[in-house]
Amino acid sequence: MALHWGICSAGKISHDFVCALSTLDPTLHSVMAVAARSAERSRKFAELHQIPKSYASYEELASDDSIDIVYIGSINTEHLSLSKLFLNHNKNILCEKPMALNVKQLTEIQSLAKEKNLFCMEAVWSQFFPIYQKIREIIASREIGEVQIAQATFCLPILTKDHVAMKELGGGVMYSLGMYTAQFAMMVFGDETPKSVSVSGHLTPEGVDSGANITLLYPNNKMATLVYSGICRMSNVAEVGCTEGKIKIYPFWCPTHMEVTHTKTGRTDQFQFPLPDSNVKPFYDNATGLRHEAEL
Amino acid sequence: MALHWGICSAGKISHDFVCALSTLDPTLHSVMAVAARSAERSRKFAELHQIPKSYASYEELASDDSIDIVYIGSINTEHLSLSKLFLNHNKNILCEKPMALNVKQLTEIQSLAKEKNLFCMEAVWSQFFPIYQKIREIIASREIGEVQIAQATFCLPILTKDHVAMKELGGGVMYSLGMYTAQFAMMVFGDETPKSVSVSGHLTPEGVDSGANITLLYPNNKMATLVYSGICRMSNVAEVGCTEGKIKIYPFWCPTHMEVTHTKTGRTDQFQFPLPDSNVKPFYDNATGLRHEAEL
């Protein structure tokens, strides 16, 4: 039986998430309804994506008994209240990152989900890409030795957008880009806990972070070095340095390419993981890769 | 008339420097003598590179009146005393990096050179590569906008070597690899002074640095992010992120490849700067590029 999705908010990321769902088996994933604050936007979104129902309020979506799980694609400042709304209506939720703006908010959401016995996940889509799974396997197999360094850079000129630049909209480049570099380090080092975390970066006059360089120091000389900035564009690759080789992936937050180099032989193996196209064109690069987090 | 070179020490880097000199016009650069502590090593080095004279002590080289300039390729701990020896014998010097182990030593060498009115330079070869000159031109022309980020990574498994691992031999990975990332940032940001410098890294039980992540914060949201490690190998590229494009070079400390990407058009221009071969095979990658610092 198909999982019945509800889509909360008709913005760009919701658009792309529905594009991604459309590439999956329709007997497994079916979008039943969309909700936005504007009836017009909601209706247009439903029309474009051929969604049966459109609502002009999130409360209506929460009250729709046909929905199993709600995808929350609204702006950051609404994640707390919307997560609570849907959980309180016994809906499972997949909430765009950042799920909350601080630990206190996050704990509140998690406690409620636990109390209600509902599925509740932050949509860190990178973690579900086949390449991430492959990296976990390579690291576990130690075929290129032991991990020493994880490095990720994510710089795009997004500080021009209000929802990134303005503190009152839950802005800050760490929430938009920096978190991707952090999740990469956490994936590479798995259960290991850093013995120190250092951050050095800039704040804008509006009081949001524009970019930073982060160091996570782990025991045994291991480290993660993470760079993000909302001001200009960089190559945005990530690498894992191991004692007997290295792994390089790009674009690292939604990777389709991986290179694994064996230091001793100099051999580099190339891996390609192409993504399907959707009928409706997505806004963001490799956005049909959002399908992987829905398949979980 | 040819510049008459003396070579101080018969190690790998001296070997490579002489290979590089051999690719230059012999009427402009001529190696007259080599000196090492062992007569046998000195003689073999002279034979291999067809150098007229070989000495079994640095003092003999210093006393050779036919020498205009001495290349000092000895281990780090000897740079101070050897620089002073040659300057005191009125020889110009080109000394391998690090020229000294601390600022006090460096000031001593520089003062002596100034007093004697002699040429005295640290052999930071990267700075003389044609690609570095090209980067300076691109930055000055602002053809891809204003510089925002400089990023360089230099990781090679060199902590296995005594002269890197042992403090009493002037070891430490900053001296061997980290300094290359720092000179890259200094080149990119030219006369600008960082408003803060942060370093987070590891020390080995022997008390030398094994690797670190360095942040230089400059005014107006600009930053340099520098990573080095002596434990494993990474791709070791450097990038300059500008408001309207980016520059990528590799291998960044001795580059033969450059890519310049214009953000607006998506166009990437490729530049290749091949290096000549020498008759005797060098030890290090792209080592004939050492010729550029001799040509200065």
UniProtKB/TrEMBL annotation, chains A, B:
Any one GO molecular function term: trans-1,2-dihydrobenzene-1,2-diol dehydrogenase activity
Span of domain Gfo/Idh/MocA-like oxidoreductase N-terminal: 4-121
Keywords: Oxidoreductase
Enzyme Commission (EC) number: 1.1.1.179, 1.3.1.20
Keyword Protein transport: no
Residue ranges the record marks as coiled coil: none
Gene3D superfamilies (UniProt xref): Dihydrodipicolinate Reductase, domain 2, NAD(P)-binding Rossmann-like Domain
Keyword Oxidoreductase: yes
Annotated GFO/IDH/MocA-like oxidoreductase domain residues: 132-247
Catalytic activity: (1R,2R)-1,2-dihydrobenzene-1,2-diol + NADP(+) = catechol + NADPH + H(+); D-xylose + NADP(+) = D-xylono-1,5-lactone + NADPH + H(+)
Pfam family, one: GFO_IDH_MocA
Family: Belongs to the Gfo/Idh/MocA family.
Designated name of the protein: Trans-1,2-dihydrobenzene-1,2-diol dehydrogenase
Organism for this UniProt entry: Stichopus japonicus (Sea cucumber)
